[in-house]
Amino acid sequence: MARRPAVSPAMAAAAVALLLAASSLVTAHDYSDALRKGILFFEGQRSGRLPPTQRLRWRQDSALHDGADAGVDLTGGYYDAGDNVKFGFPMAFTATLISWGLIDFGRTFGAQEPHARDALRWATDYLLKATSTPGTVYVQVGDASRDHSCWERPEDMDTPRTVYKVDASHPGSDVAGESAAALAAASIVFRDADPGYAARLLERAEEVFAFADAHRGAYSGSRSLRDAVCPCYCDYDGYQDELLWGAAWLHRASRRRVYRDYIKRNEVALGASQSINEFGWDNKHAGINVLISKEVLMGKDEFFQSFRSNADNFICSLLPGISGSGGHPQIQYSPGGLLFKVGNSNMQHVTSLSFLLLAYSNYLSHAGARVSCGGAASAAATPAQLRRVAKRQVDYILGDNPLRMSYMVGYGTRYPLRIHHRASSLPSVSAHPARIGCKAGAAYYGSPAPNPNLLVGAVVGGPSNTTDAFPDARAVFQQSEPTTYINAPLLGLLAYFSAHPDPSAAAQIGGD
Questions:
Q1: CA 28 – CA 32 distance, rounded (Å)
Q2: What does the record give as the active site (predicted)?
Q3: Where residue 2 falls among pLDDT bands split at 50, 70, 90?
Q4: Is the peptide bond before 450 cis (omega within 30 degrees of 0)?
Q5: What is the mean pLDDT of residues 234-240?
């Protein structure tokens, strides 16, 4: 791994100040309102039979027979984005990140904590169904190719609800490892609220992880699955990171030595230090290092010191003015101050990487430590600097950007109106009871009119280039489509800043 040039505290502080000054107007945001709306978004993504407590009333029941053709109940769960397919890989990651936010910042969720747990449980109830057959994980419901050729409401959809699975003959350590992580992390969240449910989650997590480890392979490497999961959610980075990720969450949830030993034994073989500037539904490396670093920073386990070094390197790669100076040129900042990585749906990087900045700053604050960004002992960044960078990203999303537009639907006075989302863009069933067929929806897709249903709390993909430009158009799905895994890490950020709006003030939040 290439070493980063030493950076003095003054340089680090100046770099952060430069980022904060990128926006000429800073608004006082209502983070509590944004949190409420960010959680509400998940109700708009629900599949299955909706509960009486459903607050987003323009949605109705959908996909009530999912799994029937395979002899299993796979109703429920979430549609991942603006389509009507249920993809298990990003759904499990979504559950893991909602859990992490609740574990580390649960006290700051306030009145929204029960709603956040409900959002999590909608995913974990489905994951329990998807892992109910020993030696099998059901990883997708719906034919993505056929689904994407239609523009129809989930309540109307008539495209095939094909069921896809991984098993011993067709391994998928990536999606199985992420499912194990999600179940384990959620078990911590429900430990006090519902001990019986928590125990069930943890037991299933251990079973699924054992399956993932015993039958190794990437799920998109299987010929029977490749065409179904690609190009939407191919595994581009291998399954090894999900095995470490699953073990890390199982260790945190169970405190069993077997998982600690597994992590240390497989640290090199499974590439813990690789691609550390990545974190998302496909690549868990940076998350692994930050998560495990808590053990070191809390003085619980010097055994994992190498993970702390990896985490420091990752954090330094995100600090503006440092990241582009020779360490990770993939990390850039737009003129308006938005963290930017090449690819589609940039906000998924913004929210997930910002969450890691905040989580790590919390661990550092507890330990009275700083981030080392070079060889010299004096080259360090403080926890407050990390919080400021994370808060700047949240504020950009909420409207502190060159366009003065919130990228969260329903927050502020200006936000995207033509998001790439079938249910939002088509008239609701109550407004238009007659069925809208597969191709009939094209007229709504191509209309310049705003979406008739407000998907409150949805955060779209956002600017896809370094000019801070954003076309509010359904057809530009790379920028206008919301996803569950954009919102999931944002919940913890919004909860924290709702309670601690001043990032310079030290605020140590306890976890599990």
A1: 12
A2: 420, 472, 481
A3: very low
A4: no
A5: 91
- Helix axis angle for 240-254 and 195-214, nearest 10°, is 150
* Angstrom distance (rounded) from CA 342 to CA 330: 7
Length in residues, the chain: 512
Cα first-last separation, the chain: 33
DSSP 505: S
Those residues whose C-beta lies under 8 Å from the C-beta of residue 233, and which sit 6 or more positions away, are 87, 89, 90, 220, 281, 282
Q: What are phi and psi of 327, to 5 degrees?
A: -90, -70
- Triad 405, 407, 413: Cα angle to 5°: 45
DSSP string of 265-332?
A: HHTTTTTTTTTTT--SSS--HHHHHHHHHHHHHTTS-GGGHHHHHHHHHHHHHHSTTTIIIII-TT-E
Kindly state the tokens that stand for 327: 């360490």
Q: How far apart are CA 354 and CA 349, in angstroms?
A: 8
d(CA 100, CA 358): 12
Kindly tell me if the per-residue pLDDT of 323 is higher than 50: no
Residues recognised as catalytic: 420, 472, 481
**What percentage of the chain has pLDDT greater than the value 90?**
79
Q: Which amino acid is at 77?
A: G
Q: What is the DSSP letter of 110?
A: G
Please list the residues that pair with 166 across neighbouring strands: 137
pTM of the model: 0.93
Q: List, as own/partner pairs, every contact residues 377-380 make where C-beta atoms lie below 8 angstroms and the sequence separation is at least 24, other chains included.
A: 378/8, 378/9, 379/6, 379/7, 379/8, 379/9, 379/12, 380/9, 380/12
Q: For residue 423, give every residue at least 6 positions away whose Cβ sits within 8 Å of its Cβ, in sequence order, or none.
A: 44, 58, 59, 153, 154, 155, 453, 455
Amino acid at 209: F
- For 335, the token pair is 């003129």
Does the pLDDT of residue 119 top 50, yes or no?
A: yes
Tokens of 402: 């060159």
Ramachandran region, residue 492 (left: φ > 0; alpha: ψ -120 to 50; beta: rest): alpha
For residue 95 the two structure tokens come to: 């559950």
